[in-house]
Design brief:
This protein has 632 residues and is an alpha+beta fold. It has 2 domains: 184 residues, Penicillin-binding protein 2a (Domain 2) (Alpha-Beta Complex), CATH 3.90.1310.10; 355 residues, Beta-lactamase (3-Layer(aba) Sandwich), CATH 3.40.710. Helix content is 35%, strand content 19%. It is built from 22 helices and 23 strands. The strands form 7 sheets. Strands 2, 3, 4, 5, 10, 16 and 17 form a 7-stranded mixed β-sheet that branches. It has a 5-stranded antiparallel β-sheet with strand order 12-11-21-20-19. Strands 1-8-9 form a 3-stranded antiparallel β-sheet, with no helix packed on it. Strand 11 and strand 12 form a beta hairpin. The longest helix is centred in the N-terminal third of the chain and has 39 residues.
């Protein structure tokens, strides 16, 4: 047994030098490769980890915003932000430093402590938005303060001084957003769009950042570009937004809503382009730009009338009598009525008695906004099926009715290029099953839907879109503010827009429009008349349990080949023909004629107040008592 092991041991001993040489060769190869990668080949070095190299971020200017005629709405003003990298900070004269930058010792200490907690090796923002003059006055002294650097930045300015809610604002990236970002584009404290167009088009507006690597000596002095600029990248300016907004029309809306609460949206029917969008009370957009952001935001956010909320896309109202136009179109399409249909009704049959009890025809019913007429229209719509059981009949009828109404955009987002658009509420079978129990409700439980009351919830954008649908005789284009994006208008790219059809024949809309024309010519909306222009409209009163009802008016013009569709809601204004129709008429006159000739009438509308409004130090128009806009 022992004799068998002797040859094996001899063989292993004889091969030992060969095995050792093999491992020595492998080790030498690894060492030589590491030497090459770390010492000779600079392309494999970690640029951020070398203390002798400074990595500077070049933040591009944010894209600007223009109106439909090329007028500037949002611009930039160049400033400088100061950063601190804790690991590179050496002992310095803090008193001189604080005096130079007009900061306190406590601010200096606390800000550096926060920066260390974030990262000792990465820069954190120390001061914001030094003007060009301030930057020039301190740059020569920075050799005394290693670890502190500057980056060119900007803040937003607003030449048009309007559209605060729709434009939105930028601010420091929220902590959650910073932690969740996948591409690691943003640094702590960087600016990002937080609302409105600024948020929706953040990726287009922000541009592409540039990076510059500079060699530094032990004294913190620059010694030229690293690797001859091989790894430097050039910043690319953000894309501009070319909007469909008419600045003149928007500013007129602002003036007409002085001392009022509510909203206005105007659309070009054939394209879906937003011509004006206003939410009131509003605020000066410059308040949320620059160094005053934090203090101004606190004041505005505590304002009881919520000026930061965009009522145009998020507030809830009942559509009121404007919804009678939808009922009329559906009734005609189903064949349950004709333009000549007349209903004779007894006053005792109805809880609501607005309008005549007997309308001679559909045109007359729309002109005078007859509640009993459309009560009967809705009843016939729901009964237009083979069910005889009243509970089942209402259920089947409401489902079919709801399918058609949804095609108008009710109960869903329209897709406007703004964040926080509300879906609204379109009452359906599930809702009433929950309220009353399955098959425990019938027409008498939901009759208020016939005139736009009850469990609806719509915003002003939906009302304007309804008007655009009527103007188009049965279809609507996705509403949008931005037409094109690009570095310049010549190279800009258009936005893809969808067409949405209601499925109701155009000939039926023609009959509805005849009634809408009568509303303005000799009906409840006469205050929207504009000389020389055929205006078609409809008044509405949205019930409000807390205070005076809200006034609604929708209109489009001209009657044929319409160029503008508009919706106005004045909270606590009462009747649409009194509070909202005059605003519509003046805006139509401005847009189609290019000027408002009725200056005395314009002044009268501007100076009419429907709600007690005060001006706070924030320059925001504020309602003393919050108005009710939520469906109860």
């Amino acid at each position: 047994m022992l004799s068998d092991l002797v040859p094996i041991t001899f063989m292993l001993e004889s091969r030992k030098p060969v095995i050792l040489i093999f491992f020595y060769i492998i080790g030498a190869i690894y060492i030589l490769r590491l030497f090459y990668l770390q010492i000779i080949d600079s392309s494999y070095r970690s640029l951020g980890s070398l203390n002798s190299i400074r990595r500077e971020i070049n933040v591009p200017l944010r894209g600007q915003v223009y109106d439909r005629k090329g007028k500037l709405i949002v611009a930039n003003e160049e400033v400088y932000d100061m950063f601190v990298t804790p690991k590179k900070v050496l002992p310095f004269d803090t008193a001189s430093f604080c005096n130079l930058f007009n900061v306190t010792k406590s601010y200096l200490d606390s800000t550096i402590a926060i920066a260390k907690e974030y990262s000792k090796d990465r820069p954190s923002r120390f001061l914001r938005q030094l003007t060009k003059e301030e930057y020039a006055s301190v740059i020569d002294a920075m050799i005394q303060y290693p670890g502190f650097t500057f980056e060119q930045s900007f803040f937003r300015t607003y030449p048009g001084n309007t559209m605060a809610n729709a434009l939105g604002y930028i601010g420091e990236i929220p902590q959650k957003k910073f932690e969740e970002q996948e591409e690691q584009y943003y640094r702590k404290g960087d600016y990002i769009g937080l609302s409105g167009l600024e948020k929706y088009y953040e990726n287009e507006l922000r541009g592409i950042r540039g990076v510059r690597f500079t060699l530094m000596n032990v004294k913190g002095e620059e010694k030229g570009q690293y690797a001859d600029g091989k790894y430097d990248t050039t910043a690319v300016i953000g894309q501009n937004l070319y909007t469909s907004v008419s600045l003149e029309l928007q500013q007129l809306a602002d003036s007409l809503f002085k001392n009022k609460v509510g909203s206005v949206v105007a659309i070009e029917p054939s394209t879906g382009e937003i011509l004006a969008i206003g939410s009131y009370p509003t605020y000066d957009p410059s308040l949320l730009s620059g160094k005053s952001f934090s203090s101004s935001y606190t004041v505005l956010s505590k304002n009881p009338d919520r000026p930061l909320n965009n009522r145009a896309i998020s507030a809830f109202y009942r559509p009121g009598s404007t919804f009678k136009l939808v009922q009329a179109a559906i009734g005609l399409q189903m064949g349950v009525i004709t333009p000549k249909t007349s209903f004779a009704s007894s006053p005792s049959q109805f809880i609501f008695h607005s309008g005549p009890y007997e309308a001679a025809n559909l045109y007359n019913a729309i002109q005078l906004s007859s509640n009993p007429y459309f009560y009967n229209v809705f009843k016939k719509i729901l009964a237009n099926n083979s069910e005889t059981n009243p509970f089942k009949q209402a259920r089947v009828g409401l489902e079919e009715w709801g399918t058609i109404v949804a095609r108008f955009g009710f109960g869903k987002q329209l897709g406007i290029d703004l964040p926080s658009e509300s879906k609204g509420v379109l009452p359906d079978v599930k809702r009433y099953d929950k309220i009353y129990g399955k098959e425990q409700w019938k027409f008498s439980n939901i009759f208020s839907l016939s005139i736009g009351e009850g469990e609806y919830g719509v915003n002003v954008l939906k009302l304007a879109n309804l008007c655009a649908t009527l103007a188009n005789r049965g279809y609507w284009m996705t509403p949008h503010l931005v037409k094109k994006t690009g570095i310049n208008e010549a190279s800009s790219k258009g936005i893809n827009i969808e067409t949405h059809k209601t499925g109701i024949e155009p000939r039926h809309y023609e009959e509805v429009i005849k009634g809408m024309h009568l509303v303005v010519e000799a009906g409840t909306g006469r205050s929207a008349k504009v000389e020389g222009i055929e205006v078609c409209g409809k008044t509405g009163t949205s019930q409000n349990k807390k205070g005076k009802d809200h006034a609604i008016f929708i209109a489009f013009a001209p009657k044929y080949k319409p160029k503008i569709a508009i919706a106005v809601v004045v909270e606590n204004g009462g009747f649409g023909g009194v509070a909202s129709a005059p605003i519509c008429g003046l805006m139509i006159e401005q847009y189609l004629n290019g000027i408002v000739k009725r200056q005395a009438y314009k002044e009268q509308v501007m100076n009419t107040s429907w709600t007690t409004v005060a001006r706070h130090n924030s320059n925001a128009s504020v309602v003393k008592k919050p108005s009710q806009t939520i469906i109860e």
